[in-house]
Amino acid sequence: MKVTIALLGLLLALGPAHAADEAFELQAVGTLEVAPDGSVHDYTLETKLDPQVAALVDSTVRGWQFEPVLVDGRPVIAVTRMRLDLEALPRDDGYALQVANVGLGEPEAKDNQPPRYPASALREGVGAKVSLLLALNADGTVDKVHVEQVSLTERMGKRGDLLRERFADASRETAMGWTYDMAEIVDGEPVTAQIRVPVEFAIRNAEGWTARAEYIPGEIVPAPWGSRAIPDSRALAQGDVQSLDGRVKLRDDVVGSLL
């Protein structure tokens, strides 16, 4: 069912001004408790939204169905963190909200410091985007790091191979010391996780601004523990976390549905 929201109320709730005929995005974050039968037992919305928007999000999420989470073949209660990306689509009488993406089981980084920029790459003005796969322990520490892809801002032949190695080494060494707030609790216990995170090395100009970089995709090297390869180096942005083995899974695809 299409639900429209009063234009004025929605725009005030979202802060920045939007033209009345423009689509735009917003995000809601919450915590889900999934019952053994896959229904939503409880749901908490953490993001502060306009009451009309929050009510739509809440009623929609509470109606979702999930695959039962099993432990030794037994369905159990599972808790997961949820990120809901929404797109506001203009209508004659306001906006309709559409589900653009749903992220489940995404651990949150703590005070994770970025890796040191390789000095040789910095001197040459070369930037990079490194895709890392991390295997996390249940306490949020990093157990294993795999460099899946290193994409540079320049085509550099064999010199580029050396710089990719240096970007990879810097990222791998630093990531081993990262910690995360884990996003899923299954049958009362936190569980391990596998995630994908990007690390960007960007050159800042004299004014302190970072120029938007176009990356030349590097070779994709699948992790030995079997995580799926990423097809596009632009798929994740700095600060994003993608869960690769979350226990909580939606039964039906809700992307594209209207609230």
Largest sheet properties: 7 strands, antiparallel
Q: Count of DSSP E strands?
A: 15
Pick out the low-confidence regions: 1-17
Please tally the helical runs, counting DSSP H or I stretches of 4 or more residues.
Answer: 4
CATH class type of the largest domain: Alpha Beta
Report the average pLDDT across residues.
Answer: 86
Question: What is the oligomer described by this structure?
Answer: single chain
Please provide the ordered H/E string of secondary-structure elements.
EHEEHEEEEEHEEHEEEEE
CATH fold call of the largest domain: TolA/TonB C-terminal domain
What does this protein look like?
By secondary structure, the protein is α+β, with helices and mostly antiparallel strands. It has two domains: about 5-105, no CATH class; about 110-245, TonB (TolA/TonB C-terminal domain, 2-Layer Sandwich). Helix content is about 15%, strand content about 35%. It has helices at about 5-15, 50-60, 120-125, 155-175, and strands at about 5, 25-35, 40-45, 70, 75, 80-90, 95-105, 110, 130-135, 140-150, 180, 185, 190, 195-200, 240-245. Strands 1, 2, 3, 6, 7, 12 and 13 form a seven-stranded antiparallel β-sheet that branches.
Provide tags for this entry.
alpha+beta, 259 residues, TolA/TonB C-terminal domain
Give the helix/strand layout:
Layout: E1 4-5, H1 7-14, E2 24-34, E3 40-45, H2 51-62, E4 69-71, E5 74-76, E6 78-91, E7 94-104, E8 108-109, H3 119-124, E9 128-136, E10 142-152, H4 157-175, E11 180-181, E12 184-186, E13 189-190, E14 193-201, E15 242-243
Antiparallel strand pairs: 1-7, 2-3, 2-6, 4-5, 6-7, 6-12, 8-11, 9-10, 9-14, 12-13, 14-15
